[in-house]
């Protein structure tokens, strides 16, 4: 078992509520997964910007295996691959964060699209020296829930050192939440985007809580 040290002040599930999405101002890193392969691949571990260091994920070209990506085009990731062990994406790039600066992680998530049960997703930062996790959990996300924006925020002062980004499916049933359009940025301007479903919002600024992550 591995513990996620999660500094979570807000975990507001707002499924069913139309929300505001954020702009691309201050983008440090982004990935829509479109360039990684030309066809859908089960148990894929050849991503350009990520390794899969635990479990497995499936690479989806929109429409492959009956799964649609955000906007109905491009590619996305099924966070629970086809081995009965949900995967963890770990960024190849290492990041350092400036004290006093607020950072944002944005991503689009849908519920699993194969009529499965609700799923959750862990995301945040992994200390490259200690392996300690600073993160949060979104979910459970109902099966077949449409894509919605998830945003996590943290202060550079709470993340001294060097980190990789991570996104981890939670589950072992070969049916996972679908991930698309991951962005790390350092400032935000919110603009309304009608039709965007805000599944959850997290602020990594408050009291320390712990969540256990099942690891193979």
Low-confidence stretches: 1-24, 189-216
Coarse shape:
globular
Quick check: average pLDDT?
78
Q: Could you spell the SSE succession in H and E letters?
A: EEEEEEEEEEEEEEEEE
From the 3D structure, determine the CATH topology. Jelly Rolls
SS summary, helix count: 0
Question: Number of domains in the coordinates?
Answer: 1
Q: Structural class of the secondary structure composition? A: mainly beta
The CATH architecture comes to Sandwich
Through-space gap between termini: 9 Å
Largest sheet, described in full?
9 strands, mixed
Describe the structure.
The chain is mainly beta. It has one domain (2-213): Jelly Rolls. The protein is 0% helix and 52% strand. The protein contains no helices and 17 strands. It has strands spanning 2-7, 10-13, 18-22, 27-31, 50-54, 58-61, 75-78, 88-91, 95-96, 102-110, 119-127, 133-141, 148-155, 162-170, 178-185, 190-204, 208-213. The strands form three sheets. Strands 2, 3, 4, 6, 7, 10, 13, 15 and 16 form a nine-stranded mixed β-sheet that branches. It is globular.
Defining key terms:
Jelly Rolls; nine-stranded mixed sheet; 216 residues; 17 strands; six-stranded antiparallel sheet; mainly beta; disordered C terminus
């Amino acid at each position: 078992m591995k513990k996620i040290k999660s500094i979570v002040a807000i975990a507001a599930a707002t499924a069913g509520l139309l929300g505001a999405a954020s702009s691309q101002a201050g983008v440090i890193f982004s990935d829509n997964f479109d360039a990684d392969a030309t066809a859908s691949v089960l148990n894929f571990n050849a991503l350009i910007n990520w390794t899969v260091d635990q479990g497995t994920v499936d690479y989806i070209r929109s429409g492959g295996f009956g799964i649609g990506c955000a906007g109905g085009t491009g590619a996305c990731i099924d966070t629970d691959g086809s081995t009965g062990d949900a995967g963890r994406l770990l960024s190849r790039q290492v990041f350092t964060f400036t004290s006093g600066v607020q950072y944002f992680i944005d991503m689009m998530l849908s519920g699993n699209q194969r009529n499965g049960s609700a799923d959750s997703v862990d995301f945040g930062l992994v200390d490259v020296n200690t392996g300690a996790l600073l993160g949060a959990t979104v979910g459970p996300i109902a099966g077949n829930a449409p894509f919605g924006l998830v945003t996590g925020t943290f202060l550079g002062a709470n993340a001294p050192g060097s980190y990789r980004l991570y996104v981890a499916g939670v589950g072992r049933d070969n049916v996972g939440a679908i991930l698309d359009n991951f962005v790390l940025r350092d400032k935000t301007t919110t603009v309304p985007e009608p039709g965007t479903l805000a599944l959850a919002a997290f602020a990594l600024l408050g009291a320390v809580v712990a969540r256990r992550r099942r690891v193979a």
